[in-house]
Write a structure and sequence with these properties.
The structure holds two protein chains of two kinds.
Chain A (H helix, E strand, L loop, with lengths): L18 H11 L4 E4 L6 H10 L5 E7 L6 H17 L5 H9 L9 H19 L2 E7 L1 H12 L1 H17 L4 E6 L3 H7 L14 E4 L5 H14 L7 H11 L4 H14 L5 H13 L9 H4 L1 H4 L3 H15 L7 H10 L6 H13 L3 E3 L5 E3 L2 H11 L2
Parallel strand pairs in A: 1-4, 1-5, 2-3, 3-4
Antiparallel strand pairs in A: 6-7
Helix pairs in contact in A: 3-5, 6-7, 9-10, 9-11, 10-12, 15-18
Chain B lengths: L16 H6 L5 H16 L5 E5 L6 H13 L2 H4 L2 E6 L8 H15 L6 H7 L4 H15 L4 E6 L2 H22 L3 E7 L4 H4 L10 E4 L5 H14 L3 H8 L1 H14 L3 H7 L8 H24 L3 H11 L7 H8 L3 H13 L3 E6 L2 E6 L5 H5 L9 H10 L5 H7 L3 H16 L3 H16 L2 H15 L2 H14 L3 H14 L5 H12 L3 H14 L4 H13 L3 H14 L4 H13 L3 H14 L8 H13 L3 H13 L3 H10 L11 H15 L6 H16 L10 H11 L5
Parallel strand pairs in B: 1-4, 1-5, 2-3, 3-4
Antiparallel strand pairs in B: 6-7
Helix pairs in contact in B: 5-7, 10-11, 10-12, 10-13, 11-12, 12-19, 12-23, 16-17, 19-21, 20-21, 22-23, 23-24, 24-25, 25-26, 26-27, 27-28, 28-29, 28-30, 29-30, 30-31, 30-32, 31-33, 32-33, 32-34, 34-36, 35-36, 36-37
Classes of the chains: A alpha/beta, B mainly alpha.
Amino acid sequence: MVKANPGGSLDPRFIVGRDELIRQIWDVLERQCVLLNAERRIGKTSIVRKMAACPPSGWLAVFQDLEKIHTPEEFSEAVYRQVQQYLSWLPKLKKAAEEHKTGEYGLNSRSWKPLLEDTIRQLMDAQKKSGKRLVMLWDEVPYMINNIRKRSGEQQAVEVLDQLRSLRQENPELRMVFTGSVGLHHVLDSIQAAQISAAPVNDMYAIEVTPLESDAAKQLARELLLGESLTSKDTDKSAATIALEADYFPFFIHHIVAGLKLGGIAPEPDNIRSLVRRQLTDANDPWELGHFRKRIPVYYAQEQDARLVTTIMDHLAGCPDFISLNDLLSAVQMQGVTVNRDELIRVLRLMERDHYLRRNDDGHYQFRFELIKRWWKLDRGL
Amino acid sequence: MSDEDYIWRFSPCRTDPELLETIFVQREALLVDLLERVTESATTASKHHVLLIGPRGFGKTHLITLLNHRLSKHAAISDRIRVAWLLEEETITSFVQLLKRIYEVLAQQYPTEFPLDWLHDLLAESPTGIQRQLEGKLVESFASRTLLLCIENLDFQFSGLGTNGQHDWRAFLQEHPFTTIIASTQRLFVDVKSREKPFFGFFSPVPLEPLSVSDAVELMRRVAANRKATDLVAFLDSAEGRSRVRALHHLAGGNHRIYVVLAGFISRDSLNELIGPFQKMADELTPYYQERLRWLSPQQRQIVEHLCSQDQPCMPRQIARQLLATESTISSQLKKLLEIGYVLRSEAGRESRYELAEPLMRLASEVKEPQRRPLKLLVNFLRVWYRPKALPELMHRAGTDSLRRHIAAAIEDAKINPDQQIRILIDAIEKARAEGNFSELLQALEEKAHMTNTAQDWFHLAYVQSEIAKDHRSAVVSYDHVIKLDPGQTWPLIEKGYALHQLKRYEEELACYERALIIDSDDALLWNNKGSSLHELRRYDEAVACFVRAVELDPRTHQQLFNLAGSLFAIGRYAEGLAQLRAAMARFSHIKDLDEPSMIDSLRRAFSVGNELVVRQFADLFHEFNRISRLGDGLVRSLAKIDLENTTHDSLNRWLDFWEHWGSTHVEMEVPLRLFRTGIGYLIKQDRKMLLDLVLSERQLVAQVLEIEVS
């Protein structure tokens, strides 16, 4: 039995509904590196933590949160320490580990690039000898790049990305997983285009972390209800309601169950719906969904783009079904927004990338998340 | 009083935890939940992070102290965790300082595991080196244990850490998940609330609820019990005691500390004894509220100061006019103040009204008032503590000029504003009624009745006691107050009689109607009710006479007609009874509330002496007037009326046979007969297993009639 734990770290044994995705990631890692995209609090850290805890045979994984890194030197040193940890797990390579560690004395004086190259070389050698491959699980990469840009300048940020790309090209066996709660594209966009020689991560396989599948979400809700000793007339029905109301986001499922427990509320479907409605309309915005509106002028710095995004969201919020590009174009033009087809397509692509929208098989558009659509309608009084 | 008995009002963590246990109210379920979270964190790789949110004095430290206390008593868990508790006075400005402080606290608690010398030797290194070593040391020390980190005033610590420090800490927690955090803060703050910040969504927020009036009474009762103040405990159990706590609640809100501070003087009537502690409390709390005002932007501060000066909730446009600002600006600032917990909003139609979330915030603005002007809070205190008519008398007893000035201001206020005590109670009654909180409604009504001592208020109380709470015993007492205050009315006697009927106190019920009939001898309802109580007392002849009188006075009402039939059956005047019943059924075909079970039981006695015909005619009447379902229901319910001591098994079996036979031609009787058959079987054998022949819902119904328990 497990208690609701919104925001806390989860025991890998209790992470529900991610086995297939994890299997897919390992599968891709056999061939190339991975870029894991996800909205914040969708559970990506839980995924990489589970990967680190239970790697398949022949693999080792080290998790590292890079948000604390501000310079290329710190990054290079972090990689060095990560590789050192890997070496320490391989008794046969103890000597190599010790040799490698002697380099620590010169850490501060060495330039970051040679240190990084040297470290990766050591890693490749060790992998060959041990037959155990290392995957470096790097969380909050966009934060780090942005930090480096701010502290050391755009050039340095670009060089770190270029260097990593070049290492991946030179070492086909090198594996890394980038994750981050801010889209890397926003950080890259903020760096002047001319300074980036080529798309720095287009050799990595992008995988998007989605909310849970329906059955997994229900299972999670059921387990949490059990863990919190919350009983209802029909547990399956209650769990299904929680899953649906949370739009299958594990974070919100945890929150709903925690809210039921905290409020001493019986987990009956009506109570669950009422709790979620209160969360969505609470002036304090406890789920911080206002972020999806507030970030529009930040993500879409040009005023006309921001206005167009808001108009598209307003229109889609009122539509029960997916909308074709042509219909969407007419609708926004009817609202007095001057936009041509190409401009609209450009903005729609960006909105997809930022998890606002999704396209169905017919290429029609609708909100990416039903929960955000519901909140948008309430918030905008539509 | 020894140290162990002293309740530290501003530093609960210094109070003996066992004493804190005894005065712990309202949050037992929350504490158990926190213990479960820490236990799960200690026994699995999951780590919970909880943020307790509540203003100062809301019992946050009390809760954390008890959490640690209970954990310390749980040997299996306490061995798996190490606790580092950073108190609210801590100032930390970087991640490495945080690590150092955690180590120092651990060193104090567990010196052999975390030697302080090790840290002292380390301090010669660079901050980066210290950080790395401390990280390594903690990771190593907690390889198989969990660190329970309790942090008070997390908002201040986050502010000190800054964004970089927060990123460093979060990265450390993510990479090395051995820490579970129980933190507290006075308000939800941007560093945990915004998606842009590293700790967004990291904590499970737990807003601490203010004390309700009932919680406050319970807290003060426990404090009084701890002080062995039995008089105070008894006083708090009285309506007057509750009323005073309610007055305090109006002034001070649901702040725990206020009640601990004021518990000692709530029962005192000496004005000088009351005012001293109140002023002292105000003096102690003023700097805190001033500090809270300083946290705000100038415009937000102005709004809060304006609300401090008002006794009623205000609309944004009223505030805007006073502050020479636009309504939209004020509305926007009010929304922010709402978010950070300074104001409360209530909706009145389309208008929103705002008031202070913490009424004692007025202390902060009052200090700016000219020195000689009476403190509004103290004037309000006098207004809520005393009825207006008591104020002039207080003036004579006031010991100081200052007090006299305050009483004079209270008297002036009483001339233009309604009685504050009553207003508070009316608000409480309306709120409880709107929320459907009947226990609170009853308590507020009781306090109001005691306070005003009017027939109307006692009647309101009695009505809710009787009709909603079904507490007929208390209702009888309340109706006695009404009768005493308004002795010339019959309606309180009727209502009291009804309550006594429910209590089966028929003699007293009869006395009520007899007394009412002296006031009004031509009231058909009174004759009918008197007849009913006489019927219950088996004085059937007298009952018949009363019902006859009632029918004479009001032949259009059904009750007395049916009742008359019932009493006629009871005294064996079956033919008259049947005739009366036929007439009543013909006239009032829709009426459902006749007492079939009593009639059927009367007829059972006729049957037992061989008068089967009258029973058949009775049953046929129900068939004729299409009321067989009522007959079936009455038959089942008549099981409760059977007097087993004077009834033989043989006669019960024959009674059953009659109904089986009569009912065999009426399909509507199938289910009632099944229940009746089982009930008779139970009465004969007195064995609950007899009921197992029925499905659960039927079993429950029969058990209810026979007043027996079934699993």
